[in-house]
Amino acid sequence: YSTTLQSWLSWFGDLGDIYKRQKPILTYEHHFNDGNGIVELELIFLALDREDDIRKMKSLEVTFAYVNELSEVPQGVLPHLAGRLNGRYPSKQFCAEPYWSGIFCDTNPPDTDHWIHKTFELNCPNGYRIFHQPPGLIKDENDNWVQNPMCDNNINLTNNYYTRLAEGQSKDFVKVYCLGEYGSVGF
Fold it and tell me: How far apart are CA 22 and CA 9, in angstroms?
C-alpha cells in the first residue's frame, strides 16, 4: 500500500479509467484506448518477500510481472513466477497472435554474495538482461561528489538529492544507494 502501489499510481494513475477491488488481493484495472483499440489491464499487487509467499503464485495466469526491490525477494520466487507466464497466458485459443511476456525487476545492488549478483552478473541465463542505471553521484573536476544530471529519475529529484543522501553515510552505503554498485549495507 505505501510503496509499490503508490509509485504505480503516481506513474500511471491517469492511464484511463481505474476500477479497483480491495482485499484479499489488491487488484487495479485500467481501461484505456491505445490507438489500436480498447486495452483492459489488470494489475495484481502481491507481497512476495518470504519463501512462504511462493504459494500465492499457484494457478496464477499473467502475461507479465514487475518485481519491485528484487533484492528483498527470495531466490525461489523468480523461477516460479517465470513458470506462471512465459507464453502461458493468454492461451493460444484466446489469443492466436504472438505476444510478449516476461518479467521486469528493479533493485538497489545487493552484496556480491547475493543470489542476484551470482545469477545475473556471473552467469546470466539466456533470455535475461541486466541494466545498470547511471549513478546518482559523479566526481567533479575538483574530485568532489556532485549529483549526476544523467541519474535515474533526475527530473523528479531535487538538485542535491544524492549529495544529501550521501552526507554522513558509510562508504558502502554511498556505493550501493548513490553509485548503484554492489556492496554490503547492514541495517
Answer: 15
